[in-house]
Amino acid sequence: xxxxxxxxxxxxxxxxxxxxxxRPDKFKKGTSYKKIKTCPESCPFCAGNESMTPKEVxxxxxxxxxxxxxxxxxxxVVPNKFPALISNLPLDTSKIGIYDKMSGFGVHEVIIISxxxxxxIAELGLKELEVMINxxxxxxxxxxxxxxxxxxxxxxNQGKEAGASLDHIHSQLFGLPMIPPVLGKELSGTLAYFNSxxxxxxxxxxxxxxxxxxxxxxxxxxFLVFEPFASGSPYETWIVPKRHAHNFEEMTNEQTKSFAYxxxxxxxxxxxxxxxxxxxxxxxxxPTLMDTSKYFHWHLELIPKLTIKAGFEMGTGVxxxxxxxxxxxxxxxxxxxxxxIKV
Length: 343
Fold this sequence. Notes:
Elements: E1 3-6, E2 13-16, E3 58-61, E4 73-79, E5 93-96, E6 99-102, E7 107-112, H1 126-143, E8 151-158, E9 170-176, H2 181-197, H3 201-212, E10 216-219, E11 223-226, E12 237-241, H4 253-273, E13 279-284, E14 299-304, H5 311-316, E15 319-321, H6 325-336
Parallel strand pairs: 2-15
Antiparallel strand pairs: 1-2, 3-4, 4-7, 5-6, 7-9, 8-9, 8-13, 10-11, 11-12, 12-14, 13-14
Helix pairs in contact: 1-4
C-alpha cells in the first residue's frame, strides 16, 4: 500500500509509492563516469593550468614555498569564471511596481579538490577528503566576516545530470545576501519544533532513528548516517553530527576525520554498489547573522539522481519515492560489509 509521510522539520509530505516500488538493487544505472587518467590540455582545474582560472582566493599547499597561482597545491579555491553572483557589486534593493528587486551581489567560488585529473570524488582517499573539508571550513569562516552575506551554501555536483559543467572534480560555494527557501524552511521548522518541544528536532530524530534502527546505515563516534523517514527520492542520505552543533565550520580536527570517513563510506557505496550514479550533496549550516544555536543542527544531504520529477511532483510539490527508505537502508548496510575504505 502506498503511504504519505510527513517531514518532521519542513512539514512537507512525500508519497512512498510501494505499488510501483523497485528493489534497492535495481537502481544501478551503469557506470557512466569512468576513471580518466590523462589530463586534457584544456582542463583549467589541473595542476599546471592555473593561468586558465581567475586568481585564487585560497589554497592548501603541498609545497611550503609555493607562490599563488602556480602548481604545488592540494586544494585550490578560485572565483567562478562564469559566476551566478558577483562580489564587487553594491548590495542594492529596489522596487519595480509591485515587484522587489535586488542587485546580484554574492560570492560564487569553485573549490578544486584535486590537482590530478580525477573525475569522480569517490577516487579520493580519506586524507584527501579531510583536506577538502578543511578548505570548506576555511572558506566559510572567512566569508562569515562579510556582514552583507547572510548564508553560505557548499555543494558538490557529480556528473553532468547533476549539474557538473566540467569533469574534473570540484565543489562550489555560494555566499548569499539572503536565506534561500530550502534552508529557510528548515530554520522555520526547527524553530517551531523547539518552541513546541523545547528540544532540537534533529537531535530527537537521531535519538529515534538509533532506537528504531530501521533507517540507520552507518555510524561512528561523532556522526550518524541514515535514510530520512520522509525521503523525497531513493537513497537520499543524511550525515549528521551526534552532538548538537549548528555550525559546520566549528568542527574539531577529530570530528573532521570522522565526517570524512562517513562521507567516504557513502561515496564508495554509490560508486561500487549503485554503478556510480550522478549525485548532489550540500551542507546546510547556520546563517551568519542569526543565533540558531538552540534549535538548528547542521547536516549534509546526499541525493543521487536515480529518478526524474514528473508533472505530479512539479505541480503539487509532493515528491514520489518509489522505494521505502527502510529497504534502501538495509541494502546499504549489507553492502557496506564488503567495502574497503581507501586511505
